[in-house]
Amino acid sequence: MKTPSDYCTGYDSPLGMNRRSFLQRFGGGLGGVALASILHADSGVGLHHIPKAKRIIYLFQSGAPSQIDLFDHKPRLIKETGQELPDSVRQGQRLTGMSGNQSSLPLVGSPFSFAQNGQSGHWMSDLLPYTRKVADDLCVINSMHTEAINHGPGVTFMQTGSMFPGRPTIGSWLSYGLGSMNDNLPNFVTLVTKGGKGQPLVSRYWGNGFLPGKHAGIRFRSEKDAILYLNRPEGVSANGRRLMLDRLKELHEIQLEKTGDPALETRIAQYEMGYRMQASIPDVTDFSKEPESTYKLYGEDARTPGTFAANCLLARRLVEKDVRFVQLYHQGWDHHGALPSKIKDMCKQTDQASAALITDLKQRGLLKDTLVVWGGEFGRTNYCQGKFNEKNFGRDHHPRCFSLWMAGGGVKPGYAHGQTDEYSYNVVNDGVHVHDFHATLLHLLGIDHERLTYKFQGRYFRLTDVHGHVVKPVIA
To answer: What is the total count of domains within the chain?
Structure first.
């Protein structure tokens, strides 16, 4: 049985000494220096193995894209459109209240054309003309599955490893476990497409949960001031602000010595980061020096702050500055009706920029150690929600299988993992649960998911809770 000392905890750990600290204190620190040179001297704790990725850009498609109409090609489903969903396929699975009371569950195949792409032969629909061009860079998982059947729990599960609010998100775990790679920007940045409509996006999706507050995601806005209240008030000079912060720090340190309250350390760190960001944020959000070739690659939408394309470009600029985790949210994929027209609009907004991000990172030599993830919280049903209309239908929520793709960061390019049945209803081999997905992300960044823990309310928590296996076939 493992004891707390067997676990590698972050630098905020109540255990007080991590492996890196131990090596530095004993043996003259030579072991620590050697290990740090191999396993990233900038990390917050000693890593468990040599990482393949340093950072993640997560393109989260909120609302759950239909795997059937994008990546999971099912000729039999197309052929049997209009027929009833067989009981042998459904296997008694619970349905949502939106379609569970329907007297009929007519199958509806994708109305879009599919083709195999690149040397890899990835199947994709004609909704994704740009993504098709980078098919050989993608690792597509068609066998994702989850227990969540509604959006709130589904997004929370994908971001925190639990369907219940209050747990730290992926970016917060990475900030806590790996520390910072830069001094002037947050470890964890969130970008939300401006004007998006759909399921609400709440701050817990990028929250720190029970981890110290400095590990929370920082949302950048698309307005002139990317972060509210960051700039100095009128009439306050940089020197005056610096003197004020120095005196405030001294007061906090006096109070910290008396109380030992870790929240004071967080407050000191946040004030200092805010001061440094006054110069770094305007620089990283200023696209004025981007060449015309950038906008040709990402599309004209990239000129408009807050669009998905502009956020993809900003994500590239952030990882160039060594931000550890960049989370993009794009709303509008919840297609209970009028799916054929609505999914076209979503793909038009996201396809070019998603593919451009892969190409741009690759051209700059960043893709090899930047992991890009694209996907939503669950899949969509193979049957029609509501009255059947082959040309104007909707799909309900479906947790038993869905698709996502990854690129760069040590995953196997041009590889398709997992398989669903002929109806895209059940996983038939190589299923990947949400916990497995998280375990794999952490592994790619050099972390054993069972050993990165934090003690809260008397027990040790981790991103994968008490489950999860690394999906080794997807690793290059």
So the answer is: 2
* pTM given for the model: 0.86
Half-sphere exposure of 450 (CA within 13 A, CB side): 9
Asked whether 75 and 116 are in contact (CB, 8 A), the reply is no
Which stretch of DSSP H or E encloses residue 130?
A: helix 129-133
Kindly report, residue by residue over 332-371, the tens digit of the pLDDT: 999 999 999 999 999 999 999 999 999 999 999 999 999 9
> What is the C-alpha to C-alpha distance for residues 199 and 147, in angstroms, rounded to an integer?
19
Nearest to 325 by CA among 60, 134, 54: 54
Task: Give the burial class of 329: count Cβ atoms within 10 A of its Cβ; 0-12 exposed, 13-18 middle, 19 or more buried.
Answer: buried
- Answer yes or no: is 17 within a domain: no
Hey, what are 4's tokens? 């707390």
Residues with Cβ within 8 Å of residue 79, at least 6 apart in sequence: 109
272 and 417 part of one domain: no
Please report, as a single letter, which amino acid is at residue 122: H
Task: Write the burial class of residue 365 (CB in 10 Å: 0-12 exposed, 13-18 middle, 19+ buried).
Answer: exposed
Other beta carbons less than 10 A from residue 225's beta carbon: 13
Between the CA of residue 249 and those of 75, 246, 276, what are the distances in Å?
65, 5, 15
Asked whether residue 323 is assigned to any structural domain, the reply reads yes
Q: Whole-angstrom Cα distance, residue 445 to residue 433?
A: 19
Compute the distance between CA of residue 248 and CA of residue 324 in angstroms, rounded to an integer: 29
